[in-house]
């Protein structure tokens, strides 16, 4: 009688460092293109140059008015390079770190 392999003990596949470098380089190149910069500014203007994250019913108070660095966050990468306005949101640096950590934790 054959038993099914115990998959819970197998290690996750190792990341390909060369592929990671190529993807990182492509992403960085994308961030310096004029069309991305225009989408980024349009997102900040649409969101009032403020972080849009809401925690416990309160909108994050951080934004350009109080000198906080703002990031243009992708809600989805499904249309990366061809983003729609609703694919992007303004986050302060602190909220961006939190959202990124939560997203990465859900991927693992």
3D structure, described in words:
The protein has 108 residues and is α+β, with helices and mostly antiparallel strands. It has helices at 17-31, 34-46, 93-107, and strands at residues 54-55, 58-59, 70-74, 88-92. The strands form 2 sheets. Strands 1-2 form a two-stranded antiparallel ribbon. Strands 3-4 form a two-stranded antiparallel ribbon. The radius of gyration is 19 Å and the shape is globular.
Concise structural overview:
The protein is α+β, with helices and mostly antiparallel strands.
Index terms:
108 residues, two-stranded antiparallel ribbon, two-stranded antiparallel sheet, 3 helices, globular
Number of E-state strands: 4
| Strand percentage | 5-15%
The pLDDT mean sits at 86
Q: Low-confidence runs (pLDDT<50, min 5 residues)?
A: none
Indicate how many domains the architecture comprises: 1
Order of helices and strands: HHEEEEH
Order of strands across the biggest sheet? 1-2
Output the structural class.
Answer: alpha+beta
Assembly type of the shown chains?
Answer: single chain
Described by the principal axes of the CA atoms, the overall outline is: globular
Binned, the helix content reads 25-40%
Which helices and strands occur, and which strands form pairs?
Blueprint lengths: L16 H15 L2 H13 L7 E2 L2 E2 L10 E5 L13 E5 H15 L1
Antiparallel strand pairs: 1-2, 3-4
């Amino acid at each position: 009688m054959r038993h099914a392999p115990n998959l819970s003990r197998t290690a996750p596949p190792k990341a390909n460092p060369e592929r990671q470098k190529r993807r990182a380089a492509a992403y960085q190149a994308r961030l310096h293109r004029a069309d991305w910069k225009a989408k980024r500014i349009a997102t900040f203007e649409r969101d009032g140059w403020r972080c849009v994250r809401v925690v416990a019913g309160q909108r994050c108070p951080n934004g350009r008015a109080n000198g906080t660095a703002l990031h243009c966050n992708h809600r989805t990468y499904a249309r990366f390079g061809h983003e729609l306005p609703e694919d992007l949101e303004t986050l302060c640096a602190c909220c961006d770190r939190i959202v990124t950590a939560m997203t990465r934790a859900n991927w693992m």
